[in-house]
Amino acid sequence: MNTKITESFNNEMLDFISRSPTPYHAVINVRKMLDAGGFVELKEAQSWQLQPKGRYYIVRRDSSLIAFVQGSQPMGESGIRILGAHTDSPCLKVKPNPDINKQGYQQLGVAVYGGALLAPWFDRDLSLAGRVSVINAEQQLEHHVIDIRRPIAVIPSLAIHLDRTVNESRSINPHEQMPPLVWQLGEGAPENFTAWLKGYMQAQGVNATQIMDFDLSFYDVQAGSTLGINNEFIACARLDNLLSCFLTVHSLLQANSDRTSLVVLNDHEEVGSGSTAGAAGNFLTATLDRLITDSSERHQAEANSLMMSVDNAHGIHPNFATKHDANLGPQLNAGPVLKFDVNQSYASQSDLSSRVRVLAKQVGVPLQSFMIRADMRCGSTIGPITAAATGIETLDIGVPTFAMHSIRELAGSKDSEALAKLLTAFLNN
Question: What would the CATH number be for the domain defined by 91-220?
Fold first, then answer.
């Protein structure tokens, strides 16, 4: 693999992730990629006039997106090649009425979104991003996606002198110990968070007379980077799963227009997918209904379709190797990982994985396999949910990573481009 090409690829991917602190921003940045690639936006609430070889995308609730290339071949006969990923990541979300005043400091109450590793959130430079709904000067409701970008908050650790046993056993209470500090009370301090947010919106040119509601998340402002003596690794927040979002869209942009190809990026995977924007909602099935209006052809197309659910895998950690099955411990920079679970937390089946292994061999991409220890349970993905909803054969695959669900995750610098190569071949094969 060309080192310079890999470096350029990773830099583009890390820039995408760093500019996407929330699912709203991820969708905005995916739209920019698609717009530049000649895709046209469709609205769910409007009628569609699709053209052969057309390139289209749809956005739902600002945080989920489907993009597709309309193939020239009949979908009933050729089926659809589908790639799926999710736009959300574990984080700390600001609660409604979040103001906490303690010991002369203003803090904000937060709720833990998803299965976050909490300890890495301490002593980080945190900013705030998300969506804010306001009433403007004309008494109209507006929704704005914001990213403050600069650090405005921190969750300080307690000094070891005041908790001598912290390194022996630590239990974190997110309600009591994780409200971030945002300012010091006193002269010149904002009245409360809503007042501050209103002033911020006005300073950004939004004529906000009232803050109605918000969906805001804290995030670490440190950008993604390449590291290691030989630049073997990449580190960034939200590798799970914005890395996969970037790879799937990157591959769709290179898809030919023979067979219909589609990418679905769902929100709310980290909390079970049970929403209109999640994989358990009808976003994909409703889109397929409109792509194939004849029910018989629709069922034929689903039987001929294949999907790859693209979500990160657990690399075998050198400090915790016993947490893995010794025969199924993926290495970073040794290729993408096929993910298996006999309890169907992953959708992979041996017949489809065999086809992908043949394809990977043809394009020169090494593959690894992962299955959890027999005495543990693994996480899940949008793969089984989508397979059950559509009847489309689905396989789970992803790049191996360390520190999944931490505020900063680690992957190999070679694996992302290798997976992108395989995904592109999957769409075009």
Answer: 2.30.250.10
